[in-house]
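Example record

The entry below shows one chain as it appears in the dataset: sequence first, then structure tokens.
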Amino acid sequence: MGREQELQAIINRIGGLDEAAVSAAAQRLDSLTKPPGSLGKLEEVVKQLAGITGQAIPPVERKAVVVMAGDHGVCEEGVSAFPQEVTSQMVANFLSGGAAVNVLARQAGAEVICVDIGMASPLKHPGLLQRNVRRGTANMAKGPAMRREEAVEAILTGVIIAEELARRGVELLATGEMGIGNTTASAAVYSVLAGVPVEDAAGRGTGINDERLGHKIEVIARSVKLNEPDAADPIDVLAKVGGLEIAGLTGLILGAAAERRPIVIDGFISSAAALAAARLCPASVSYMIGSHQSHERGHSKLLDEIGLTPVLRLDMRLGEGTGAVLAFHLIEAAVRLQSEMATFESAGVAKG
């Protein structure tokens, strides 16, 4: 069996939600001491989690955010405010526990798992998952970012990590990433898959000025025109104008869905990966939870394209998985309400 056939076999395992569990969760929610539907989005989250896990009170105690790291050859075009070496420097920061995602994950009781899936420079650390597919992508402004086979391998790498975490008992996953230049690749992926103009897809990323933003838009448009990615073939899009960490997150999402694990989607880059996953397998969207609406241009419409509603709007644009980890708190709160609130019957309260 070829690698693409392996990927298709995994996609074929992804089914719909357990409607009996959704119904059981809804019945319990309506029995709690509150007006029906009064907890709003929290109730929707509980029902979705029940449908994913098959349990009316779904388990979310063991949590992990997977930070995929990869470099981008398109940085040669001057599209970022930071040099490419910041990717490996920030990964070292993650591994030492000093980044924003580490702080938020500690508060949420979540594990941070760092993966070298496409860093340009090797980094040796016992805590780093060494899953490098290639040492950074090529410059997509001069040709394809990677070969199709490499994109497939990166997707399958993400799938395998999701499977490994499921076997370890992780119950709730989140997407995170690190890669200087990855808002450029993500904007290209979004633009092609959704058919939106590049100028509506590309934002300021690391905080570039108007002049550099105009240049970034021109580089993306030139890359798309040169490579002619096929919008009907998400793998082709990821290979030609995507990134290794974006493809890895696509696989992580598909793997989580195949393992019936909920996965919280972070910001713009993670959402581009989620859109690719949705195009490869529409059923996978039922396993995704939108965490926050990024300050990055186009993120709101990108979420709409996937069919996700964010639970937070904090004007964040850091990435790393920070918004997704913040959403862990609300997800856990929703489940605790389902588990710990008294029912009308147990509390002796008259039901309206």
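Notes for this example: The domain at 63-332 is CATH 3.40.50.10210 (Rossmann fold). The first helix runs from residue 3 to 12.
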